[in-house]
Amino acid sequence: MKNIVVIGGGPSGMEASAQLHKMGYNVILVEKSPALGGHLAKWDRLFPQGVHAGNILEGMISNINGVKYFLNANVQSINALGKSYNVILDNGITVLADAVLFATGFDLFKAEKKEEYGYGIYEHVITNADLENWFRTKNDQRIVENPKRIGFVHCVGSRDEKAGNRYCSKVCCATAVKQACEIKQEFPGAEVFCFYMDLRMFGRGYEDLYLSAQKEYGVRFIRGRVSEVAENINKELVVKAEDTLSGKPLKVTIDLLVLMSGMQNCSAGVKVAGQIGVAGMENDGFFETKDSIYSLQQALKPGVFFAGACTGPKTLPDSLHEARAAALAIHTYLQARDHQ
Amino acid sequence: MGKFGFALSPSSRINLDTLDNVKFAHLIEIEPDVLKCMACGSCTASCTAGKFVKTSMRSAILALQNGRNEEAISLLKSCLLCGKCTMVCPRAINTRHLIISILKVYQ
Ligand SMILES: Cc1cc2nc3c(=O)[nH]c(=O)nc-3n(C[C@H](O)[C@H](O)[C@H](O)COP(=O)(O)OP(=O)(O)OC[C@H]3O[C@@H](n4cnc5c(N)ncnc54)[C@H](O)[C@@H]3O)c2cc1C
Ligand code: SF4
Ligand code: SF4
Ligand code: SF4
Predict the structure, then answer these.
(1) Interval A267-299: pLDDT, tens
(2) I need a surface site. Which of A2, A13, A208, B86 has the fewest CB within 10 A?
(3) All domains of chain A in start order, with CATH
(4) Which ligand 4 atom minimizes the distance to the CA of B36?
(5) Residue whose CA is closest, atom 2 of ligand 2?
């Protein structure tokens, strides 16, 4: 039986493993954290329709039934051996893999790097991930009892050369609009503002989400990037931006600011990939695929494959499609290899 | 971190803290579709009156959101109620009706 090592037990890695297992391959799934699920395990409800992340995750976990997986496990070393890859895990397991799939996902941009927004400095500044956590646990000291005004800042660490990320992170507009509606459900009396440069509501159902944020929830969209945030003596946040639609500077004092942190290639994934000469691209740091249209699951190195957010910002459906495509790409590759 | 610029408060600045939106709330009650505007500018681009005097449905809605009520009225006072803006609005807002409601609420 052929061995396939899947690195990363997030949505992409789990879905690809389930598919490969059903196709009859011996899958070894390696996850560095104590649980499966990747970022999906951190989210509460998902755009565009508000489906519960927990239900999706539960379904995915029951679907990988039969796949061998290791938690708290890291790849200690990986090197090419003929047409295979010798993978040694830090738990003592060694596998000679016929193919390796990177499903190492993304790291959330560290919002404290955008010092002008005051994350980690001012009391009431949180990130999109923090807010998901609050929706799940209702436990976060930074969120006051009855906020009167709440602001969302789009493009935090994305579309920002100084932050090192020139690209758009794709999922954060939809996340902001979704969270703006959800926070209005929690605090119906609050005024909610979204500060955006462009609203990228590209997917099926996303424009409806935007429309309902406007019409059902009265969310106010202000086109302009927040330039700076200051804390006043009451620990409220004074937000400054330009309302570029009217060409006038704008000021608003708010009780909670939510930063839409973007996506970056996962540093733990990059570290492993580097050992076999697989690297991120210069322009954005995400892994380089064989081409940009037709072979998105293949690395430049034969036998190495990708799925999910490690090759660029992706939604969950995007990531799951790639996982299935990767399973097929691996199957096709191994069949061709054996008939040579 | 420098708090550059925070001491200055230019008169042109929009200050949402001091915004009185009672009238806007009333407008939303009778014209809920005003919330649907996505600031595309189609209305302004095709405005009949706008060829002669500054007239802009889009800017008027924005001015109301920012509490600049007089500015909004001045942007609509030359409106001929021809309805071309209603024909072009992609969010299907009955802008012609909205203009009448704005004048009722704010004048
Ligand atoms: C704030 C936010 C909200 C979002 N909300 C939605 C939404 O509502 N709807 C939607 O469609 N999408 C949403 N997304 C996008 C979604 O989270 C991603 O598409 C999805 O998580 C990508 O899955 P993945 O498996 O590729 O990566 P990840 O979820 O990042 O999983 C990668 C896994 O690999 C593991 N790993 C990494 N490196 C190694 C290594 N070297 N060894 C072992 N394990 C490793 C990690 O620990 C992790 O478990 C959101 C994204 C953000 C940032
Ligand atoms: S999806 Fe929206 S918030 Fe995220 S980087 Fe792109 S434009 Fe900015
Ligand atoms: S109805 Fe008024 S605002 Fe609309 S296009 Fe005609 S003149 Fe312009
Ligand atoms: S055409 Fe409609 S959506 Fe566009 S700016 Fe005018 S009122 Fe708003």
Answers:
(1) 999 999 999 999 999 999 999 999 999 999 999
(2) A208
(3) 3-105+266-339 (3.50.50.60), 111-261 (3.50.50.60)
(4) 3
(5) A173
Per-residue model confidence as pLDDT tens digits over B11-27: 789 999 998 889 999 99
Name the residue with the closest Cα to ligand 4, atom 6. Answer: B43
- Does the CB of A291 have a partner CB in chain B at under 8 Å? no
Provide DSSP, A81-107: ETTEEEEEETTS-EEEESEEEE---EE
Chain B residue nearest residue A230, CA to CA: B3
Token pair of B17 as six digits: 């803290």
What's the ipTM?
Answer: 0.91
Per-residue pLDDT, B2 = 46
Q: Provide long-range contacts, Cβ within 8 A and 24+ apart, for A61-67.
A: A61/A14, A61/A36, A61/A37, A63/A14, A63/A15, A63/A18, A64/A14, A64/A17, A64/A18, A64/A21, A64/A29, A64/A36, A66/A21, A67/A17, A67/A18, A67/A21, A67/A27, A67/A29
